[in-house]
Amino acid sequence: MQILNQKLMSRSLPKVKYQELKDVSYQEAWDYQGQLMKALVQKKREDADKVAKEPSVHTILFCEHKPVYTLGKSGSIDHLLLNEEELSQNNIEFFRINRGGDITYHGPGQLTVYPIFDLDYFFHDLHKYVRYLEEAIIRLLDVYDIKASRIDGYTGVWIEGKP
Questions:
Q1: How many CA atoms lie within 13 A of 60 on its CB side?
Q2: pLDDT by residue (tens digit) across 62-101?
Q3: Are 58 and 16 in contact (CB under 8 A)?
């Protein structure tokens, strides 16, 4: 942690832009994440040959999706318990995605957070980064007397009694 603090102190702190997207389709959120990522990469390329005049702007998206199931590249379609007709009848979308994970549901009342950060400003261990995010969420929820934790083998933060 001390190395991370020294690294951050040696340069301007990056800005983080917060955005809330309600009732957004998974595809819209996915496309928007791609646009933000492209902009971040473009700025990084422009700054590669010169000293950056200002720190990169990172974005954190808070989304409430329309009902959707996603299937990550390490998942199995056999774990989706609804067929195409049932998905259609219930107005639930389905997407195969290039991220890890198995079947995941996102929908109304559920907060899904997408950080679009350049990890070069922090550290390069993606799993460590995700664990740090989970820990920050657990601690924030604790402030509001909401007990949350991790579940071994799963990514994310879980509210007691609601895995």
A1: 8
A2: 999 999 999 999 899 999 999 999 999 999 999 999 887 8
A3: yes
Q: How far apart are CA 150 and CA 9, in angstroms?
A: 31
Sort strands 68-71 and 103-106 into parallel, antiparallel or unpaired: antiparallel
What is the per-residue pLDDT for 7?
52
Note the helical H segments in the chain: 2-9, 26-47, 84-89, 126-143
Q: pLDDT digits over 5-27, tens only? A: 555 455 566 788 999 999 999 99
Kindly report the number of other CB atoms within 10 A of residue 96's CB atom.
Answer: 10
Query: Going by DSSP bridges, is the β-strand pair 68-71/93-96 parallel, antiparallel, or unpaired?
Result: parallel
Residue 118, strand partner residues: none
Say how far apart CA 162 and CA 148 lie, in whole Å.
10
* pLDDT tens digits along 30-55: 999 999 999 888 888 877 666 556 66
